[in-house]
Amino acid sequence: MKSFSLWCDFVENSFLDTEFVSLINSGKINGATSNPAIFKQAILGSYRDKLAKFQGLKPKEIYESLAILDIQKAADKLALNFAQNNDGFVSLEIDPRLYNNTSQSLGEAKRLFTSIAKPNVMMKIPATKQGYEVMSELMSLGINVNATLIFSLSQAKECFDALNSGLKAFRSKNSSTLKSGNLREPQGVISVFVSRFDRLLNSRVVAKNEIGILNASLCYNFIYSQNEPSIRTLFASTGVKGDDLPKDYYIKKLLFDKCINTAPLDALNAFKGGCVNLALNSDKNSSLEEAKFKTPLSSNEICAKLKANLNDDELEKACEFLLDDGLKQFCVAFEDILNAV
């Protein structure tokens, strides 16, 4: 497993045949993520001419047909990375409207994973009370999981416990096959959202553009300390809005060991390193500043900095608001897709 992974937070059919392949071949990225907002952009734009061939299908069936084709293509493009144990994952989120329904979420995740039929696919599950149960069950079945919409340390802990419980169950059921080397363990990532904190809180804190990084680092410290290589931190929401920061700001600030950063195209293009460069140039003599690992602050130092800007109640309320808002945004994007097709 690479010490650092950089994934592309964008999936679109024609892009997958061109720039996506270049990013993989150059060693810039070794994985990809998607979400309803990304598919909304594609389906309302470049996919308009593809919709006619799906006449007669229900809107959700049309969406799933298009999404599955893209995820399958991305998985194929990343197949060599996966075969070399260099990540190579791509994730697809289940219907975000099911976030509070355990049985329906689990059924949809299993159905989509079976339909895609690619071993390097992750099913993306929101980090809600119901979602934790789904994550655990999927891992126990050997299905890779991307736990998404994590904003708080308590969510990160719940996600780790759920993923780890499922992983242990999988190991117990498949111990002999795992020992023979004929079976891979499922992988779990805990997607901690970063920049949304700063956009929400910059107007009321002294440490502008730092709260998201501090909060994400706190979650990372906990996950890293568990020493479970099959469950890693993924830094999400790492795009920069506006021109006040470099586009790769949140990549550079979160170059930590054994983590993943999924970033939009403008951030990837601005960043001078990559998953390969970082792995090769992580020593102190590296000529690439972007390719040096950073050491996060200790959890005590992070908590002190956070408390200097926000009290515990303010931080908790921010986490709750961002989770609720994130769920709503993905649900709205999904509804927009269904209304458009």
Overall radius of gyration: 19 Å
Bin the strand percentage. 5-15%
The overall pLDDT, averaged over residues, is: 93
> What is the number of strand segments?
8
Shape: globular
Terminus-to-terminus distance: 40 Å
Q: Total helix count?
A: 16
Query: Helix- and strand-based class?
Result: alpha/beta
Percentage of residues in helical conformation = 40-55%
Question: How would you describe this protein?
Answer:
This protein is of the alpha/beta class and 341 residues long. It has 16 helices and eight strands. The protein has helices spanning 13-17, 19-25, 36-43, 59-77, 79-83, 102-116, 129-140, 153-173, 175-180, 195-201, 211-225, 249-252, 265-270, 275-280, 299-309, 312-340, and strands at residues 4-8, 31-32, 89-93, 121-126, 144-150, 188-193, 231-236, 259-263. Strands 1-8-7-6-5-4-3-2 form an eight-stranded parallel sheet. Helix 4 crosses helix 16 and helix 6 (102-116) packs across helix 7. 48% of the residues are buried.
